[in-house]
Amino acid sequence: MAVGPGGPGEGRVIIGLFKRGTWKVLPLAGCVVNHPSLMRAVKQLQEVFNSEGVGVFDHDSATARGIFEEESARYVELTLERPSGAFVMSCGMAFKGRKVGNFKRF
Question: What keywords would UniProt list here (predicted)?
Fold first, then answer.
């Protein structure tokens, strides 16, 4: 799923899918295709990104052309193990001049 900046009333961080033919990230809220547990995890992850001030990669701006102003989240992948309800999460980040080892854990 893509991570992008939210619009008015959406929060600072949106996790979702690209609108067809654009780089605009649309929120997954209300998606009936995804498993409800996955939707809860996406909501919680958005809340963590918002409260911890995680930078957001704006796919539509100069940042998308390699000009990074800050560390920023680009995408997340969540995999649900249905029997246990456990999740595996991967997060793609763009870093400017810092080692990945400095990434804050949350």
Answer: Methyltransferase, Transferase
